[in-house]
Amino acid sequence: MHLAAFMNAGPGGVGGWRHPRAEPGWFSMSYYQNIARTLEAGRFDLMFFADSLSVPRSLGDSIADNVRYGVGVPRLDPIPVISVIAAATRHLGLAATASTGFQQPFNTARTFASLDHLTEGRAAWNVVTSFQDAEARNFGEERLAPRDARYGKAEEFLQVAAKLWDSWADDALVVDKESAQFARPESVAPIDHRGEYFAVQGPLQVPRGPQGYPVIIQAGSSPAGRDFASRWADVIFCSHESLESAIAFRRDVRRRAEEAGRDPNHIRILPAVTPIIGTTAGNAHARRLEFEDLVPAEAGLSRLAYHLDVDLSQYDLDKPLPPLDVQGVDGHYREVVEVAEREGFTVRELGKWYGARTEGNLVGTVGQIADRMEEWFTRGAADGFTVCPTHTPVAFEDFTGAVVPELQRRGLFRTEYEGSTLRENLGVPRPEAGEWRRRARIAS
Ligand SMILES: Cc1cc2nc3c(=O)[nH]c(=O)nc-3n(C[C@H](O)[C@H](O)[C@H](O)COP(=O)(O)O)c2cc1C
User: Which of 21, 173, 377, 402 has its CA 20 to 30 Å from the CA of residue 54?
Assistant: First the structure.
């Protein structure tokens, strides 16, 4: 079983920052470094930082509610955040989100290759296509491109990045003081990429990193997102409303990977879970209710509007949500539809539920939580989990202090790191130079 920790470089989910035991250290290095040390002591594979490129809009296309309740703001840039964490850790994988929508592949490839060297093979890139018009408006565009076009651009972006990572052969560096040879010229070559979206001569000025390519993470769950993930992702981050939908998703992605010529066992699918641990089931349930009380209903609605990128004020909040063509996060829309149908919720009720949702229904004693994780793992719903904290840093301390030892006792989770790179710990192969050709051929 593999474990990732979900983080924002700022306050976490809605209401979590109001928890009596939550610590407001979002602007300090030591806050992030201490959480990372806790995760590393708990043998987590990686720490993952979500991100987006705007102050998210909520109802009425206004930022007011999100700013008022701290939904999606503030957010530091995750790259410097993982850089300071790198200095305080030795084994923990470090993942930052970067969008293919508004940056250039040259900068992004360079950043992650640099991080991979500095961390000695612990860098990971969560590849997103961005999902809000508000993000487009920070980069000179009025609206986001349609989903298929966004994934088309992401495809080319990844090809260019991978070509750049391969622009230095693994054996290019010589560094021989005697002969004055620094590197082999024949092992470093331009890429001369000319495509629909990008023209990049290359090569990169950073040699190939310890992992070849950083670990690639992806969280898109539309058909286009799944296809993209099945070709490029080493880790897939998702979120599901039921065991059944998680099993169906994992089966579908693995099938797509196989069709694309990849070994599906080289992909780690890590659904989100939000554990709430109690001394008894009743105590855990009471903690769950306390957590719900921290989330104002408007804040939940505001977060839902942000994640779907739909102005929900155009609908009657006391009626069911009509079917939508969502350009935002498709995976979250599917979950919302599943819950709305099951519970008969109005839009307002959906918002309240969405704000205080705890993924994976991990509310219970340590034993009950471990049982449920074991069930998801053994029934083929997950290769591990992305643990989302209700409040930081305490929720991670509680999880690593209690649930991790129970998973270890059951032989489900490592007691020591297996390898020195993140790829080795995840058990996913290091791409050979030229791997992009295989992926690109598959893509075309
Ligand atoms: C659990 C989860 C976490 C995500 N985290 C981010 C994120 O941090 N930043 C971001 O821009 N998109 C994030 N996304 C959105 C996806 O990466 C993707 O861009 C979006 O879902 C649109 O693709 P899709 O239609 O294929 O789902 C997340 C999606 C899911 C399901």
Answer: 21
**Residue with CA nearest ligand 1 atom 23:** 220
User: Which structural domain range is residue 438 located in?
Assistant: 2-277+363-443
CA pair distance 223, 330, nearest whole angstrom: 9
The CATH number of whichever domain residue 68 belongs to comes to 3.20.20.30
| pTM, full prediction | 0.96
Q: Is 166 in the pocket of ligand 1 (CB under 6 A)?
A: no
Distance, in Å, from the CA atom of 166 to the CA atom of 162, rounded to the nearest integer, reads: 6
pLDDT per residue over 331-380, tens digit each? Answer: 889 889 999 999 999 999 999 899 988 888 899 999 999 999 999 999 99
ω into 78 cis (within 30 of 0)? no
Q: Does the C-beta of 272 come closer than 6 Å to ligand 1? A: yes
Concatenated DSSP letters of 147-190: HHHHHHHHHHHHHHHHHHHTTB-TT-EEEETTTTEEE-GGGB--
- Our mutation pick for probing the ligand 1 site, out of 49, 253, 329, counting the most ligand atoms within 8 A of Cβ, is 329
Q: Which atom of ligand 1 is nearest to the CA of 237?
A: 1
CA of 221 relative to ligand 1 center, distance in Å:
8
Decide the pairing of beta strands 199-200 and 193-194: antiparallel
Specify if 234 maps to a domain. Answer: yes
Structural domain includes residue 306: no
The verdict on the CB of residue 222 being under 6 Å from ligand 1 is: yes
Distance from the alpha carbon of residue 11 to the mean position of ligand 1, in angstroms: 18
Number of domains the chain is built from: 1
Ligand 1 near 389 CB (within 6 A): no
Quick one: pLDDT band at residue 441, thresholds 50, 70, 90? Answer: low
